[in-house]
Structure formats: structure tokens, C-alpha cells
């Protein structure tokens, strides 16, 4: 049908959205023009800095900053990607670091200070392991996706040609976090048995740390009041098909209420870490469906 709403869309290569991308799940109201970005964070920058995309996967903290800087976007609480924070903070296998508190008064590397993975890690090691975040110097590799954003005073930008891993292995950094792909060779988690600690944290809190959600331009949501509900139905169906037909690992449940506590905690951590100057409420950033 020629009157379908065309949506220029960027998504990661996740098993639970594959049925939507390959056409097994489709709509009578919208059609997707999928655009590839490699690495995916290039899509985040495109979504918040320009108008080339209508719908995009977006990191949770990038979405928060987009709201803070009045970008015309709203979120739909579809958790597209998540990772275990406890396992994402690593140090050399022979490091003198034995527990997270040993990071106090050292220099720790992260790809960007406002990176969602970093916000989750810092929040958890402060709350659960007593780390003094203000005592740490945070070395960053790049700026945030929002051009208006400025890192806090306890950060420094890397001006050398070496990457995070090399800087750590040569002793410049005590630990690093936020690598897109974590190579396990020569390293260990700063949190002892990081994977197990993360799973225990999820079990205890009932919170799955969400990294990426879906975002849509306000103009489209305002012009087509049915759009948010249509997108949720399509992504739910793609999720079902991926599990039942492809054997995909089930992602976290979709919907605002199912993810409210996770999203709010990420926002609270962001305010505490001076990513945002104040605390934001989840309802201000997400569509109710």
C-alpha cells in the first residue's frame, strides 16, 4: 500500500528484532526503511544531532540527555539491549586491584563519561561496594553524542594514540569499562566473579540494567497518535517469533511498567554522577501505551 507511513529506522542486529528486519513481521500501517550504522552508536549521534532518522535504537542515557537538551524525541520502553555491569569493569589479571574500593584515588578509563554502560557501573560500585566516585579521575576517549554536553571536572580526555585496553595494560589506567566487545584475554573483572555478582544483583533487586531503548520523533507521534501502539505491537510480535521460531534468548519484558525501575535507576545514577544537573522522572521521557 502506497499510503503506509515510511519510517527511516536504525536498529542493532539483535535476534529479537530480526523478524521485523527480515520481513516476517510486517504492518499494514507502516513500512520500515532500515539503515545500517557500524558501529551502532553512529546511529545514536545521527538521531540526536540531525533529522535523517525517524525511529532509532538509542542508549538510555543518550535519550535522557536528548530530553535535557530539548531534542524532539520520545522513548518507547522496548529494551533492545542490556549488559551485566559487574562484568563490564575489568583490570589486568595480575593487577593489585582486588575489589572495587581499590579503585579509589586511581584513574579509570571509559569510552565516554555519559556512556550508559559507564553510568550503570559507577552507580553500582558506589552503592553496593562503597567506591568514592569523586576520588577517581575518569579518562574518556570521546565526547557524548549530544554536542551541548560537557563532562564534569573529574574527567580528562585521552590525547594519546593508545586505546583503552592498551592504556590499562601499560599501567596508565587501573581499570576500564565500556568496551563494545570485551576480550577476556589477560583481564579479570574488578568485581569478583562479575557475572555471578551481576546475576545475584538482578535477582536481589528485580532490576535488569537496560542499556538501549527505542526512540521516535515527536512530530510523528503527534501526527499519528496510533504509532506508538503500532510499534509496540510489531516489536512484541517480532520478539515472540524470534523466541518461538528462531530459538532466541528472551530479552527483558517490553513496556514502561516492566522497565520503570530500571530506567528510573539509570536516571537517578545519571543525576548523582553529574551527567544531568537534576533528576528526571521516567514518565517525562516515555510514551504511555
Question: How does this model look, in words?
Answer:
- With 289 residues, the protein is α/β, with parallel strands linked by helices.
- The protein folds into two domains: 5-83 and 209-284, D-Maltodextrin-Binding Protein, domain 2, CATH 3.40.190; 85-205, 3-Layer(aba) Sandwich (D-Maltodextrin-Binding Protein, domain 2).
- The chain is 34% helix and 19% strand.
- It contains ten helices and eleven strands.
- It has helices at residues 18-21, 41-49, 60-68, 85-88, 116-129, 164-169, 194-205, 218-223, 227-244, 256-272; strands at 5-10, 30-34, 55-59, 73-82, 90-92, 107-110, 137-140, 155-157, 175-177, 187-189, 210-217.
- The strands form three sheets. It has a five-stranded mixed sheet, with helices on both faces.
- β6, α5 (116-129) and β7 form a beta-alpha-beta unit.
- α5 packs across α10.
- The protein is globular.
- The model has no long low-confidence stretch (mean pLDDT 96).
* CATH architecture descriptor text of the largest domain: 3-Layer(aba) Sandwich
> How many helix segments?
10
CATH topology description of the largest domain = D-Maltodextrin-Binding Protein, domain 2
Q: What is the distance, rounded to the nearest whole angstrom, between the alpha carbons of the first and last residues?
A: 26 Å
